[in-house]
Amino acid sequence: MEILLPKDIFKILVVHSIHEYPFEACGILGGEMGDKNINIKSYFITKNVAPNPYREYLVDPLEEIKIFRYMNKVGQNFVGVYHSHPDGDEYLSDKDKEDMLSNICYLIFSVRFNNPVIKLKAYLKKNEDILDLPIRIF
C-alpha cells in the first residue's frame, strides 16, 4: 500500500507544521482508500487542544464533527490524520501507537528549529500490525 500525496497539499501541511512550531500541528485528511493506495485529496487544518501541545496532539472534537459532516456531505472519506513532532523524529511515539485507529493513515512531520529539512513518514495500523507506508508526492 502506498500514500499518494499531491505536492500542493504536501506544501501546505509542511507550512502548517512550521507555523505551529513549537507546538504539534494536526489535521484531518480526506480522500479515497483503495486496495493498493490511499489517495489524499483534501486536508483540514485543525486546532490542537491537547493539554501539552508541545509533545502531543488532540484534534478539537467540535472541529472534528464539523469536518466529518462536511466530508460526508461532499462524498469524501476520512482516510487519515497528520501531525508534527517539533524537535522530534518522524516516528510514532508510544502515545501515537496507543491512539491509532485501524485502517487510517497517519502522516508525521519532523520539524526542527533552524533546520530547513522536513522529514515525513506514513503509517497504517492493519489489525494489530503497524505498517510503514511509502509516500509518493506528485
Automatic annotation (TrEMBL):
Sequence ranges assigned to domain MPN in this UniProt record = 2-138
Give the matching SMART domains.
JAB_MPN
Any one GO MF annotation of this record: metalloexopeptidase activity
Fetch the Gene3D superfamilies from UniProt: Cytidine Deaminase, domain 2
Q: Which SUPFAM superfamilies does the record associate with it?
A: JAB1/MPN domain
| GO terms, biological process | proteolysis
Q: Does the keyword Zinc apply?
A: yes
Q: Which UniProt keywords apply?
A: Hydrolase, Metal-binding, Metalloprotease, Protease, Zinc
What's this protein's name?
A: M67 family peptidase
Q: Which organism is it from?
A: Dictyoglomus thermophilum
